[in-house]
User: Fold these one by one.
Assistant:
Number 1:
Amino acid sequence: MATTELPANLRADVETLWAYHDMGHQPRHCDVGIGLGSHDLGVAIHAAQLYQQGLFERIVFTGANAPTTIERFPRGEAVHYREHAIELGVPADAILIETAATNTSQNLTNTRQVLADGDIHPASVMLISRPYQQRRAYATCRKVWPEVDVICLSRPLPLDKYIATIGDADRVINMLVGDTQRITEYARLGFAIEQDMPEPVHAAYQRLVDAGFTNRLI
């Protein structure tokens, strides 16, 4: 049975990875907000909040489905995100959707095309993602869309509260471990720019892998 309790013997390592993936970007006005599809409806919630704060005038929600989202969002991540943002008060005509992407690179390249099709050519974008996807999203954007000024934000929840919203500590740890691996592997494969990974982060990652959190490794 899933638990939201973070085991005490894992806390320090999980907190190390959690802090590493937070880019620490400060909210500021951008031309477009881009909500990256996932299992986490908090992305849509935070995108709606940022829109209502006047930080952008247009949102693009992007994402088809992954094995982790098909049950929760059967019509696709972007479609469900859009519906939820509208429920939260975002005008429907402020939202575009991209419904084919199945990875972060496609999220960004497809979104750029959707915007271009509407004669929208942003100089700056705000990527809204799960907390532990920030660093990978940033690195991918710098690789595939280098001309745009990019910042990354997530719903500002502390680790334990975030785990409670997801409802499964093991799932969050596995996702954190998987995204940490992707920082180096995706750069090696040419999908993203290289980023520094301090030794304490790598050591925390390795201990969590050794503890069996390997479900999201590639």
Number 2:
Amino acid sequence: MDHTEPEPRGKPDPSRWAAKAWALLSAVRSQSPLVQCITNFVSMDLMANTLLSAGASPAMLHSVEEIPEFTPHVHALCINIGTLSSDWVPAMKAAADLACKSGRPWVLDPVAAGASGFRLKTCLELVELKPTVIRGNGSEITALSKASLASCKGVDSSHKSTDAVEAAKSLAQASGSIVAVSGAVDIITDGELVVGAHNGVAMMQRITATGCSVTALIAAFVAVDPLHAFEATALALSIFGIAAEIGMKMANGPASLRMHLIDSLHGLDEADVLSRVNITSFS
């Protein structure tokens, strides 16, 4: 894994995004980071296949009994609360705590965070365990930021990503996490800097678990470059979006896009990445 010194803070150089994207994807492919996913039943298949197609190694392990032995050895942890139940909360908390103590990055996907008091309470308790990155849609990030029960419409977003910029910045400042808001433009912030990743296609909204899967990909990217989590998060979102753009050219609808998305992520080459990465500064 990359343990180089972090670069000085400041606005990232747009000319370096594409080269960095290819470098990180190549690192994922060569290092095959082990990413533990404690996730929902709906998303397990696509998340695992996304990680495998990108070159990472998924471990869909959620038993609290196994976490003390297993989690300290992973390269990154991804926690997704989609099909949340009280039985899984202790495992989520134990894994997040161990990831922090072991110096491993971990990523939180607060699915439908504001849909119930139970979900919101669980999310807030997990945020206290210092996730490296929090990725959600506009409604989820707004709900977490405001700690409100009225901000989320199920797993779908009733807020545009650009509408949630201030909420994302506030959450990043309060939590110390990088915050990413998925949408037509994916917004990424550390509380001060804000960038937008403009890759992707609208049809992705018709495929369940694409958001969950890009969260797992973020975990893999942060695993190979933990000292630059802001950049790694933005680039994972861009790479996933590029795979969707290429896959859409061959797709007839959501089902075939799902297949071609995985194939395209697996087959991305340097020319695809260098010519398609589209990340701009918002701050």
Number 3:
Amino acid sequence: MTDDQPPARPQSLMFSFLGIYVLGRDTAVYSGSVIDVFARLGLSEEAVRSTLTRMVKRGLLVRRRQGRKMYFGLTEHAAEVLEDGRRRVWETGAVNHDWDGTWTLVGFSLPDSRRSTRHDLRSQLLWAGFGLLQSGLWVAPGTKDVTAMLAQLDLGDHVTVLSARALSPTESADLVRKAFDTEQIAERYQVFLDRWDTPRPLPAAADDLARQLLLHHDWLQLVRQDPHLPAEHLPADWPAIRAEHVFRTLAKKYEDGAAQLADTVLDELPLSP
């Protein structure tokens, strides 16, 4: 399969596969059948086995042996990660039409001795949709519950969390402009549209199962990087609007055919007694 887009990382594709075909089904899948699915994406058996092994070591997958076959199921942590992705794709979406005018602010000051923690906190804030407003002060639209994130990092008195509204002379549009690179966000959506908003997306792909996995992978990467900015402070032609329509249309188009193919390929092991 040829495509101008850089190849997706096997683990990212694996998350998309697990989110569609394992999450919520209380089942494990045979490694050989996973290899067959990923062969449609041009991934080698070695790459798939290596990915599965790494995900076991990271506490994302568990092994279940039956006879000579090895099956892989989700850990609780993996299910939580995948459920978060499902919500972002199907519930949160790419366009924030419901913003209530509030902002969540996180301010922190950490000594150099905790440089690693500072890096981890910044990464977590970016993941949660925050943008850097000014040194040590991060902002995100809406009310964000950062309790669990901060508890993991043991920040104590080094961090302050507030909910606020912009007051004159500050405008919410200014906060969007200062804290977020909207041009870069728009460019990512445009790349998605260039790939998928065509009469026949990915004609070289093996089948609709391959297209479904690539589509979901590309979209999940987009919405996970999107801070979900208020639509009222974005251009009327914001490309996420068109991109979300394209994603939902194609997801529905591929769903039945991909599911039928998956049923013929996947060997599943029920995990319930």
